Automatic annotation (TrEMBL):
The lineage of its organism: Eukaryota, Metazoa, Ecdysozoa, Nematoda, Chromadorea. Keywords: Hydrolase, Metal-binding. It comes from the Eukaryota. The keyword Metal-binding applies. Belongs to the metallo-dependent hydrolases superfamily. TatD-type hydrolase family. A divalent metal cation 1 binds at residues 5, 7, 96, 207. It comes from Toxocara canis. This is Deoxyribonuclease TATDN3. CDD domains: TatD_DNAse.
């Protein structure tokens, strides 16, 4: 199984990352896409990719909500494009990027416009570098999909999509992929979403350390089997089929993972 969206550079994993990776491997995880949210995580993600080669694959980008729950500002992007371009050969995807229009984060009149401008810039960079986009869309599913399609983005993973199946339909038609975290197994609305998205466009994720099976416990990549079990139940197929197809989907979506074919 491949965890297509997690945050192993988060401070919650600093003290026991070796054990976290060992548990993930024991659970059948063969790779993780480790996403940045903030600029100060870039270096740590590259350290993880060197410490756990062919297991931790870097996704570098700027989350729409920065530290202290502040909506991203244009100056937050200073030197980000240059860093990504200089290190593009080691980057599996641009992420975590996107939009987040949750009302409590939109405190300034131009916050949404700035998020859109930043997201557009990161979409265009991903297309220039031929990299997949690992996308956040909380409370902004429709505008995220509209902007991706407007920009002509082709390789897109919509992580933990918060919209309903109707909102997801244009993304399904565009050939975008959807990754499913363990927390979706607790939501009736997500049953409808997973039933609507073809298995050929589904991937697994944990979004560790959040979106796990319990809101009070730290999530880890080892919990990815919960996502696979949930998809199997909704789709009425075997767990083995879900693992096989979602792994193939991930390798197709993130070309850097092709090196894993030797060990599948």
């Amino acid at each position: 199984m491949i965890d297509c969206h997690c945050h192993l550079a988060d401070e919650q994993f600093t003290s026991d990352i070796d054990e976290v990776v060992a548990r993930a491997r024991q659970a059948g995880v063969i790779a993780t896409l480790v996403c940045a949210e903030f600029k100060d995580q870039f270096a740590e993600i590259f350290k993880l990719s060197k410490r756990f080669p062919d297991f931790c694959f870097p996704c570098i980008g700027m989350h729409p909500i920065q530290r202290n729950d502040v909506s991203i500002r244009m100056e937050d992007m200073d030197s980000v494009d240059e860093f990504i371009e200089e290190n593009s050969g080691s980057i599996a995807a641009i992420g975590e990027v996107g939009l987040d229009f949750t009302p409590r984060y939109i405190k300034l009149p131009d916050a949404k416009d700035v998020q859109i401008a930043v997201f557009r810039r990161q979409i265009e960079l991903a297309m220039k570098l031929d990299r997949t986009l690992n996308v956040h869309s909380r409370s902004a599913g429709r505008p995220v999909i509209n902007l991706l399609r407007e920009c002509g983005a082709k390789r897109v993973l919509l992580h933990a999509f918060s919209g309903n199946s109707k909102n997801a339909q244009p993304a399904i038609e565009a050939g975008y992929y959807f990754s499913i975290p363990p927390s979706f197994s607790l939501s009736d609305q997500k049953v409808d979403l997973v039933s609507r998205v073809p298995l050929s466009q589904l991937c697994l994720e944990t979004d560790s350390p959040v979106l796990g099976p319990s809101k009070t416990e730290r999530n880890e990549p080892e919990n990815i089997r919960i996502s696979a079990d949930f998809i199997a139940r909704v789709k009425g197929v075997s767990l083995e089929e879900v693992v096989k197809v979602t792994t193939e989907n991930a390798i197709r979506l993130f070309p850097m993972l092709n090196r894993l074919k030797l060990t599948l």
